[in-house]
Amino acid sequence: MKAIVVREFGEPEVMRLEELPNPVPGPGQVLVRIHAVGVNPVDHYIRKGAYARRPTLPYTPGVDAAGTIEARGSGVAMFSLGDRVYMTGTSEGAYGAYAEMAVCDLAHVYSLPDSVSFEQGAAVGVPYGTAYRALFQRAQAKPGEWVLVHGGSGGVGTAAIQLARAAGMVVLATAGTDRGLAQVSAVGATHAFNHRGTDYADQIMAATGGRGIDVILEMLANVNLNRDLGLLARNGRVIVIGNRGTVEIDPRQTMARDADIRGMILFNTSPREMAEIHAAVGAGLRDLTLRPVIGREFSLADARLAHEAVMSPGAHGKVVLTV
Ligand code: NAP
């Protein structure tokens, strides 16, 4: 099979398309024939060697993909050959998802409804998992609350808007381009603001009638965290999802509001919480309340360009590789 292989950490050029032996599923594993792969910012951090968890070299990047069941290991009763699935994670020590095939532990593989394309399926795992965990497991957001998705135009943001809207929250979102603003509105935000503007925080506060925001899902905390605190309502929570540096905050802003800053990383999700996430996301995919949006597509051979795209401003949905 063909797969992207990284033999040294570095710039996107270190990703090369190579021929590898077809993987074989072991007990409790399935072999997935991959049709589309989701490209996440973390794939870039890992390839660069800038992430805390570094794989052993050489490695094949990627955790999110969608495709069909090609083979089943011994003891696997779930799934039939040819079933449509999405996955988020392969097997410990196995090739990653930037490949024509991948061996996956059953716990990482979920049914993909016929109404969801493979490209959309590849956009589910990390983005919808992160958005669900941030909104429900970390923020404990409730119907009727006001939620600001700060960075709503990318993979996680799109998922968060749809999940919050479907759960009966009032959803505000930001983006950095006209195209991004149109998209956050199209997927369910009732108010859209440009985070490259100078007075958008005032506009957000005005849109709430001065009450403030209950939950902020933050994609770039090192830029926004201090301003976020000033936007919170009493008992408000900021969930730090994305961060690329340091920031000075005024802790006093949390005091009168009884406000919380809560970090999160998807990797900490327990198996029970992960099962909850994919039960909920699967239901949303089936009843069409959750519709992943594809922004840009590249071929597997052009993974390098996809990594440049995912780190560039002007997101409008998910970056995927087609295989
Ligand atoms: P993405 O698809 O590349 O989207 C990035 C988003 O950040 C876009 O909506 C972008 O908007 C927005 N953004 C850019 N500048 C911003 C600013 N000044 N203020 C607010 N938002 C801004 O990435 P993603 O997959 O959605 O991930 C978003 C972030 O979360 C990344 O940093 C990623 O590493 C992180 N993440 C964390 C976890 C976790 O477990 N904690 C999991 C997944 C992702 P424009 O392009 O329209 O400006």
Protein architecture, described:
The chain is of the alpha/beta class and 323 residues long. It folds into two domains: 2-124 and 292-322, Alpha-Beta Complex (Quinone Oxidoreductase, Chain A, domain 1); 127-267, NAD(P)-binding Rossmann-like Domain (Rossmann fold). It has helices spanning 41-48, 118-122, 125-138, 155-166, 178-186, 200-207, 221-231, 252-255, 271-286, 303-310, and strands spanning 2-6, 15-19, 29-39, 64-72, 84-88, 101-105, 109-111, 146-150, 170-175, 191-194, 213-218, 232-240, 260-263, 294-299, 318-322. Strands 3, 4, 5, 6, 7, 14 and 15 form a seven-stranded mixed sheet that branches. A six-stranded parallel sheet has the order 10-9-8-11-12-13, with helices on both faces. Strands 1-2 form a two-stranded antiparallel sheet. α7 (221-231) links the parallel β11 and β12. The N and C termini lie close together (11 Å). The structure holds NADP nicotinamide-adenine-dinucleotide phosphate.
Euclidean distance between termini CA atoms? 11 Å
* Number of E-type strands: 15
How many structural domains does the protein architecture include? Answer: 2
The general outline is globular
CATH topology of the largest domain: Quinone Oxidoreductase, Chain A, domain 1
As a whole number of angstroms, the C-alpha radius of gyration is 20 Å
Question: What would you call the structural class?
Answer: alpha/beta
What is the strand content? 25-35%
Order of helices and strands: EEEHEEEEHHEHEHEHEHEHEHEHE
The residue ranges in which pLDDT falls below 50 over 5 or more consecutive positions are: none
CATH arch. level architecture of the largest domain: Alpha-Beta Complex
